[in-house]
Amino acid sequence: EPEVTQTPSHQVTQMGQEVILRCVPISNHLYFYWYRQILGQKVEFLVSFYNNEISEKSEIFDDQFSVERPDGSNFTLKIRSTKLEDSAMYFCASNFAAADTQYFGPGTRLTVL
Amino acid sequence: GQQLNQSPQSMFIQEGEDVSMNCTSSSIFNTWLWYKQDPGEGPVLLIALYKAGELTSNGRLTAQFGITRKDSFLNISASIPSDVGIYFCAGQLPRGTYKYIFGTGTRLKVLA
């Protein structure tokens, strides 16, 4: 069964460094999402992406964040200058049509020191 | 913004007991979904509900989409130790990007 994959599973970085989190959505999906979950808290929407542009972003998704689909398979989330409070699990999700069920990847745990 | 209130926050139950949890909101949702999350992993979809009033089962799990489209419940019958984890409801907004709003989670612990 096709699934969303994410790499790395765990990333440790120093405050102020740039990180890129990678996702490979399910191959025929067209809509892509990033969510974040701070330890012990609920999953929060960050951004949605369709047709090579952002369709919606939350207030969390400030200028330090960017997303890109650099080729036909990858979907990346870049944090330009990480802060301690960026430490969280980051989940990628995708679906074929906007109203369809979204399928989540296993997540990347980001730890900012 | 939209919020989902999920209850209970946590529960300890004996193996074999039935479990019930629910989500409520002041907003209307297009779709209700229930996910289970194990520690350090991503949410795994358990049940998806697409119509008001819909009652759907998946093995020992049963979920219902409230008639008002503002609530949903999940029941687990005859719980077993592997049911332990955090259960999240998620509502999909009926317009815009159809993003998901997640509930705060119910942490379930099953005592053998």
Characterization of this structure:
- The complex is a heterodimer of chains A (113) and B (112).
- Chain A has 113 residues and is mainly beta.
- Chain A contains no helices and 11 strands.
- In chain A, the strands form 2 sheets. In chain A, strands 2, 4, 5, 6, 9, 10 and 11 form a 7-stranded mixed beta sheet that branches.
- Helix content of chain B is 0%, strand content 53%.
- The radius of gyration of chain B is 13 Å and the shape is globular.
- The mean pLDDT of chain B is 90.
- At the A-B interface, strand 4, strand 5 and strand 10 of A face strand 4, strand 5, strand 9 and strand 10 of B.
Helix/strand layout:
The complex is a heterodimer of chains A (113) and B (112).
Chain A: E1 5-7, E2 10-13, E3 19-24, E4 31-37, E5 44-50, E6 53-57, E7 65-68, E8 75-79, E9 88-95, E10 103-104, E11 108-112
Chain B: E1 5-7, E2 10-14, E3 19-24, E4 31-37, E5 44-49, E6 55-58, E7 61-65, E8 71-76, E9 85-92, E10 100-102, E11 106-111
Parallel strand pairs in B: 2-11
Antiparallel strand pairs in B: 1-3, 3-8, 4-5, 4-9, 6-7, 7-8, 9-10, 9-11
Keyphrases for this structure?
heterodimer, A: 113 residues, mainly beta, 7-stranded mixed β-sheet, 4-stranded antiparallel β-sheet, 50% strand, globular, B: 112 residues, 0% helix
The topology string of helices and strands of chain B comes to EEEEEEEEEEE
Biggest interface pair, residues each? A-B, 25 and 24 residues
Total helical elements of chain B: 0
* Major sheet characteristics of chain A: 7 strands, mixed
Q: Could you estimate the helical fraction of the residues of chain A in percent?
A: under 10%
